[in-house]
Amino acid sequence: MHLRILEAQKNIRTGKREETVNSGKKPHVDETDSAQGLASQNSKNALQQEVLACKRKAVALKREGKLAEAREELRQAKLLEKSLEALKLRREGQVEEAEAEFELAKALEAQLDEMSSNDSGKSSVNIAEPVDVVVEDLLDPHLLSTLKAIGIEDTSIISQSSERPWPANVSATKSENNSQERTQFEERIKAVNLKRAGKQAEALDALRRAKLYEKKLNSL
């Protein structure tokens, strides 16, 4: 699964470098360009098939009563869809917007990895809730209908979710870290909401602020 995501992310980065190098050259079409275009289309088709496979698997898991696994497959499907959207924007020349999609996909992937790497004995509330908020906000109508079709309807509006009280910790240091993590997370939520409202520039600003908070947290 992650190989597909890494491949999509690599294509975004490679495409950006190629556009920079060739910016001063006249456009031309040759066999190499055709081959690259075909490879890109094949990669896109493969990712689309992977998305459909994840959704079908989610439905099958739900029928088996495995709700947690079904949710995970739906999250993975959405992560792949974000990578596909980034590739589409990059091909259209919207490099900055593609980078924003790429960052959102990375953020979602990191949260999924964090959730899966935690010990089963620990409470999953603090981790699962932020992941659900991001995933639910990124759900397109088709995927949301898929969720409801398999009986997963306990989603909430993101504005309500972002107002939920953040769990308090005994340690003052941990409390400060949690405050910064919450601020970072809220900036990411803001970026998503602004993007959905068509305010690309403001969404990118919010995403940059989130990245700054992330760097601060990493330096602690």
Automatic annotation (TrEMBL):
Residues 44-118 form a coiled coil. Residues 1-43, 162-183 are annotated as: Disordered. It comes from the Eukaryota. Residues 34-43, 170-182 have a biased composition (Polar residues). Keywords: Coiled coil. It comes from Salix udensis. This is Uncharacterized protein.
